[in-house]
Amino acid sequence: MVEPVGNHYVVARPVYSEKLFDEEHEKLHRYHKTFWDHLKLYFRCSPERVKKIALGLFPVASWLPAYHFKEWILSDIVSGINTGLVSVLQGLAFALLVNVPPGYGLYAAFFSVLVYFIFGTSRHISVGPFPVLSLMVGGAVVRLVPDDFTVNGTLVNISRIDEERVIVAASVTFLAGILQLLMGILQFGFVVIYLSQSLISGFTTAAAIHVVISQLKFMFQLTVPGFNKPFGIIYTLESVFSQITKTNIADLVTSLIVLLIVFVVKELNDRYKAKLPTPIPIELLVTVLAALISYFAKFEEKFNVAVVGKLEEGFQAPVAPDISVFQRCIGDSISIAIVGFAVGFSVAKVYSIKHDYPLDGNQELIAFGLGNIVGGSFKGFASSTSLSRSGVQESTGGKTQIAGIISAVIVLIVIVAIGFLLEPLQKSVLASLALGNLKGMLMQFKEIGILWKKDKYDCAIWVVTFLAALFLGLDIGLAAAVAFQLLTVVIRSQIPSCTVLANVGRSDIYKNRKDYTDIYEPEGVKIFRCSSPIFFANVEFFKEKLITAVGFNPLRVLRKRNKALRKIRKMLKKGELQVTPKGLICMANHTPESDEELDNNRIEELDQPTDLTDLPIHIDWSTDLPPTISVPRVDIHSIVLDFSAVSFLDVSAMRVLQKILKEFVRIDIDIYIVGTHEGFLDKLERSAFFDEEIKPSMFFLTIHDAVLHILKKETSHFLTPNFLCSLQEKGSNNHCIISTSRGLRSREHKVGLLVPAAALHSLWEMRSPKAAHKSCKAR
User: STAS domain: which residues (predicted)?
Assistant: First the structure.
């Protein structure tokens, strides 16, 4: 019963153990489905399930019939045109990162959009080339087809190298697509949860630095070989600076001017985006202007600048991937598949939350996978999504993937009709455009300070990921970053937060005793909380912290007591001890014996419960023993273990926990475990955790239930039977009234736990052995 009293509440209910609560409230024993039950359910067939699977596999069939043509079509057309122009320029620019001719970037920007339109679940992302993925594909391309590529020991010309690199890029993309498709079919969409936001941020920032370094050779127009190996970025910088005197000044000046213009206009777009009807298409304007100037000023002839050159008109026939490339690039493809999905899904999730529609991670994997398979078949390279390009599509009014189809039409027009207009465009301009899209990634350096204030572990993940990806390469760096991230999880769970709790404000609230001054600790009771699952890696830490909290090692105390009993029996047999009404009296000087003699090679017997049945007197270990016998003093009688944050125990932890609990029980300390989650006791019973010493009755609902049970049990030691009977005659019903402002109290019609309020308060206030002694003396 709960009675609200102003801003307080009064609760009247019995003290519950887990077993008593389940019996009184008739707990149901539910049937938990097995793996085979889930498997049967997954493969069952019905018309409704077939329809659901079909609509899930082809999301376009669910949203296209509901398309609001009149309201949305104009917005999608405007958005698609703007996005298409950006896709063309980014496709050309990011092809340089892959080390293939720029025209192949248009294929990557076209086919992936068509596939995503049918299979994707996000309405706002723009699918296509992404600089990080392009750089990762380019690393595999350069490793397999270096600048000094030979066939049968003979150097080949540039065109042959380009052809080989296109095949390698397409094959790596095809394999990455297969991996993504398989992960989607096998429902592995959850893999993205292992890439935290800190890891993705540090990784993409390092990738942005790699992009900057890789574009230096186009800005300076230098011949720099690819170094796709650990510390390759250092070798690249060394190669660039060793040739710095060969810089083409025209390319360098053009790059710097374009970079300056792009950065300034993008900053204006960000600052005045609320006032601008649409962002200024600076990439398009710069590209058109640079191509015109290069063509009419004849830059290629006068200054020997590197230009895009001839672009293939139309599409090339699809090609089969090179199987030999699969064997040598499996690691690259795995990294590309995971990073591509992680980046694409994280961007899609931003817009799904903003516009309130669901996303299916597994279907996204299928969509990206099929897009890469089709793109790789037509000599494109890996695609995902770009935050800047998706931002253009969403901010210019895009409502659905109809805008994506319009953008693909723009790319198609460039491929089949007007691609020749871009032939005089300098590669240095494309490099600058690629760098102009990295501002958001490079600004992620600011997250270091923010993460340091919020969470040191996340900050460490960011820094380690950044350094690993920067110096070891993106593929090895990603693997190292994931390993380090999982290591931090292990460290955090291996060293859990363990605290000693105390009652705050004489209510039912228990907090860390170090955080409050108005605390109450029942004498002889320790309340210990572990805020982590307990498993093989941290169970010893848990044991050490528990021993530190109670102030003694129960196994050591148990062994000392058993050794003392052996000594007492031996002294009684020799007549050196005499039993009197006041206890044991030493009658003669006893010759000290070493622990080794007492053990008598039977150390395992010392770990057994103390056996007092054959002694003529009951031994109270808290009183003074004969001077020749020394046993550690134990000042507590009960331990409450708060397991409300312990989500699971493994077998190793169960064994250690069972052992430590038995050690406490064998030295006459009562153990209570509270707050366990659903199914915890069932698992312990299945694991044969309980026996004659450890029983299910030690489990209670809450800390307060356990504490009240302890107070009732301990108070009964000094209340007389006649007094208890008189309380029972008054109609006590084993209820306790709790007030959050005034602590425990009893009323005449409901006697708290068969104990008068004065007795309860005296127990709360007995916070030291000295206070306990005075209290007993007063009685």
Answer: 515-710
